[in-house]
Amino acid sequence: MNPLGVTADFVHFHDLEFMRDSSTAEELQRRLPKARIVKAFNLMAAPALEAAAWSASPLQPNIFYATDDAAAGAVTRGLIGDAGFKPVNAGPLNGARQLEQVGVLLHHIADHEYGGDADLIRLALTRRSRVYPKLVR
C-alpha cells in the first residue's frame, strides 16, 4: 500500500501504477470504511516538521490536508495550526493522490538539486524568503 519502496541497496522508488489510480489514504479508507481518514503532513521531511527548524524563519510553512470527513478535517486543521504551521484544505480524500505525487516531485528535487537531502529543500525556501521578503506573508 505504500507507494514508496526501498530496494536492498537503499534505492528509493515509487509505485507509479498504484499512484495513478489511488492513494494510500484512499486505500486505507477502503480497508477501514468506518474510519475517519485525513491525509496530512506528507510533504515535508521529518526534520523539517520540527518547530525549531522554522523558528528563525519569517515563513510559516503550509501543511496540506485532504479528507471526505469535515469534522476530522476540522480537527486536523487545528492540529496543524497548533504545531505552528498554516493548514491548507486540499479538498476531498481523492486529492491525496496529488499530494502523494507532489511527494514524488520533492524526492526528485531532493535527489537532483540537493544531493538526496530532502531537508535542504526547507533551507532553500527559508533562504529564498530572505532574498524576496515581500513574497512572504
What would your notes on this structure say?
With 137 residues, the chain is an alpha+beta fold. Helix content is 42%, strand content 14%. The chain has 5 helices and 5 strands; from the N terminus they run E-E-H-H-E-E-H-E-H-H. The strands form 2 sheets. It has a 3-stranded mixed β-sheet with strand order 3-4-5, with helices on one face. A hairpin with a 5-residue loop joins strand 1 (4-6) and strand 2. The longest helix is centred in the C-terminal third of the chain and has 18 residues, at 96-113. The radius of gyration is 16 Å and the shape is flat. The N and C termini lie far apart (37 Å). The model is unreliable at 128-137 (pLDDT under 50).
Quick gist of this model?
With 137 residues, the protein is α+β, with helices and mostly antiparallel strands. The protein contains 5 helices and 5 strands, in the order ββααββαβαα.
Write the layout of secondary structure elements.
Blueprint: E1 4-6, E2 12-14, H1 16-21, H2 24-31, E3 38-40, E4 62-67, H3 70-82, E5 86-89, H4 96-113, H5 119-131
Parallel strand pairs: 4-5
Antiparallel strand pairs: 1-2, 3-4
Name the descriptors.
about 140 residues, alpha+beta, two-stranded antiparallel sheet, 5 helices, about 40% helix, 5 strands, three-stranded mixed β-sheet
Poorly predicted segments: 128-137
Shape: flat
Helix content: 40-55%
What is the CA–CA distance across the termini?
A: 37 Å
Alpha-carbon Rg, integer: 16 Å
Strand order of the largest sheet: 3-4-5
- Outline the biggest β-sheet: 3 strands, mixed
Number of helices: 5
- How many strand segments? 5
Share of β-strand residues: 5-15%
Task: Classify the oligomer.
Answer: single chain
Q: Kindly report the average pLDDT value.
A: 80
Order of helices and strands: EEHHEEHEHH
Task: Briefly note the structural class of the backbone.
Answer: alpha+beta
